[in-house]
Amino acid sequence: MPATTSTLAYLEAFRAFGTERIGLFTPYTEDVNEAIIRSYERDGIKTVSHRCLGLSDNESFGRVSDDEMRPGSLELAADAPDALIYLCTNLYGANIAAGIEGGTGVPVLDSVAVTLWHCLKLAGSPLLAPRWGRLLGD
User: Fold this and answer.
1) What spatial distance separates the first Cα and last Cα of the chain, rounded to whole Å?
2) For position 137, what pLDDT does the model report?
3) Low pLDDT (below 70) residues in the chain
4) Residues contacting residue 129 through CB under 8 Å, at least 6 positions apart
5) Gap between the Cα atoms of 86 and 72, Å rounded
6) Nearest Cα residue to 31 out of 8, 52, 48, 2
7) Which secondary structure element, helix H or strand E, spans residue 46, and what is its range?
8) In a 10 Å sphere around its CB, with 0-12 CB exposed, 13-18 middle and 19+ buried, how is residue 19 labelled?
9) 5 and 11 in contact (C-beta within 8 Å)?
C-alpha cells in the first residue's frame, strides 16, 4: 500500500516541478529552520532565504493568521526562489497560496496541500484545484 509523509511529498514535488531553490516560511524557531535547511541541502535543495515566527508549541502554530504570514511571504518571494514553502502541517498556508502566487509570480507549496497532492498522485486520483497552489493543480 502506498504511503507518504509531508517530507517525502515535498521531495517528490521538488523533483516533479524542478524546484532547486526555495524560500522557507515556518512558524518554528531559528534553530529548527536551520536544521530543515541542512536537511534539504543534503537532498540538493538550496534555501535562498527563510523566515521563522519563533514559535515552539503546536497550538500556537495553528493560530498564525494570514496577516502574520503575508509580510514574510512577500519578502521571501522577492528573493525569486523557484517556490515558496510553507512548512508545518499546523500552519494554514494553502488558503493564501493563490493570492501570494498572483501577487508575486512565485509558486507556493503548502505542507498540507503538498501531502494531499502526493497522496492523490499515489492513489491515481485527480489533483487539487489551483487555489491550493498552481503547481499542485497541474
Assistant:
1) 24
2) 66
3) 128-138
4) 137
5) 11
6) 52
7) strand 46-52
8) buried
9) no
**Cell, residue 111:** 505542507
Place of cell 496541500: 113
- Identity of the amino acid at 104: T
pLDDT score at 74: 97
DSSP H stretches of helix in the chain: 6-17, 30-42, 58-61, 66-78, 94-104, 111-123
Cell readout for 68 is 502574520
What is the number of alpha carbons within 13 Å of residue 31 lying toward its C-beta? 1
- Say how many CA atoms lie within 13 Å of 95 toward its Cβ: 8
Query: For residues 19 and 89, what is the distance between their CA atoms, to the nearest angstrom?
Result: 20
Q: What is the pTM of this model?
A: 0.90
Listed residue (42, 45, 37) closest to 20, CA to CA: 45
Instruction: Round to whole Å and give the CA distance between 138 and 136.
Output: 6
Q: How far is CA 27 from CA 3, 20, 107, in A?
A: 26, 22, 19
DSSP 11: H
